Amino acid sequence: MIIILKKNATPEQIEKLTSDIHALGVSIHKIEGEHTTVFGLVGDTSRINANDLSANEAVEAIHRVQEPYKMANRKFHPENTVIQVGEASFGGDEFPVIAGPCSVESEEQIIEVARAVKASGAKLLRGGAFKPRTSPYAFQGLHEEGIRLLTLAKQDTGLPIVTEIMSIGQLDLFADVDVIQVGARNMQNFELLKALGGTGKPILLKRGLANTLEELLMSAEYIMSAGNEKVILCERGIRTFETATRNTMDLSAIPMLKSMSHLPVIADPSHATGIAWMVEPMARASAAVGADGLIIEVHNNPARALSDGKQSITPAAFDALMKELRPYVELTGKQI
């Protein structure tokens, strides 16, 4: 349930309304927008009589939120949420690009790539320290050493770092990580999501391989209801019957999510297609349909990458892509 307050509501009227709501056993999530103030009621609102609350002089209108996700719902929070990470902001007028290798392989590799992507305009550095792989025999990442090397790259370039967490037991290792990524396989690891709700760090939440948009938003709800509203949604392709690409990139998910939720939405054309030459056209398309940013895999030697070399682009290709993106980003009123 959401309550829209009158613009001329007095502090005394608002205090009375607040007291009445708390007496009903629910909490209030207050959203102050540029033109209006909204109370989002969190808890069991099924027994609340909207007519009784409407009698309060501070109330302009009351609406029930039918969708199961409340805090992630745009009805609950009409204005876009903007999440600041270093010098980049997601969800506003900027279009930040996150770039870096699938896996951190060595100090030389990650620093070389970090310097290259920063020079081309990337605002954050990605790199996998813990790698969830389909095969138990594939490279699983450098673990703690990978995070240490990412930190060195951050010190060298100033780029905030993004890396994926696999379990609650790894949380202490992520103290110096700027954005914690939840991969597709862990999108419904609810205990992990609740734990991330207590971190206060921005969370990059990727859509699962076969999950609906509502299920993605319900996963975001787990994080937000635990106290962390800094959630960035990521469309990274879904599994369909098509085998020509690694996944099927659901471009329609981007504008749909932005209509359903106030949270920033970015796209991952690398995992969505699994093919390096397709990254550039799908990145352009993502920008054109309103994405709030991109996450792209960049490797200095894709042919020798320890993971996902097939979908990684070179620093030179990334530099060209960043130049080509500008007019598509500007179509939606953003600046890269």
N-to-C SSE series? EHEEHEEEEHEHEEHEHEHEHHEH
- Global morphology: elongated
* Sheet with the most strands: spatial strand order: 13-12-11-10-9-8-7-14
Q: Main β-sheet: number of strands, strand sense, barrel status?
A: 8 strands, parallel
> What Rg, in angstroms, do the CA atoms define?
21 Å
Helical content band: 25-40%
Residue-averaged pLDDT = 94
Residue ranges: pLDDT <50 for 5 or more in a row? Answer: none
Contiguous helical run count: 10
Strand proportion, as a percent range, falls in 15-25%
Distance between the first and last residues' Cα: 37 Å
Notes on the structure:
The protein is an alpha/beta fold. The longest helix has 16 residues, at 315-330. The radius of gyration is 21 Å and the shape is elongated. It contains 10 helices and 14 strands.
Strand-helix topology:
Blueprint lengths: L1 E4 L5 H13 L3 E6 L4 E6 L7 H5 L4 E5 L19 E3 L2 E3 L6 E4 L6 H14 L3 E3 L17 H14 L3 E5 L13 E4 L7 H7 L6 E4 L6 H13 L5 E5 L17 H8 L4 E3 L1 H5 L2 H13 L5 E4 L17 H16 L6
Features of this protein?
elongated; 336 residues; 10 helices; 32% helix; alpha/beta
How is this structure best summarized?
The protein is an alpha/beta fold and 336 residues long.
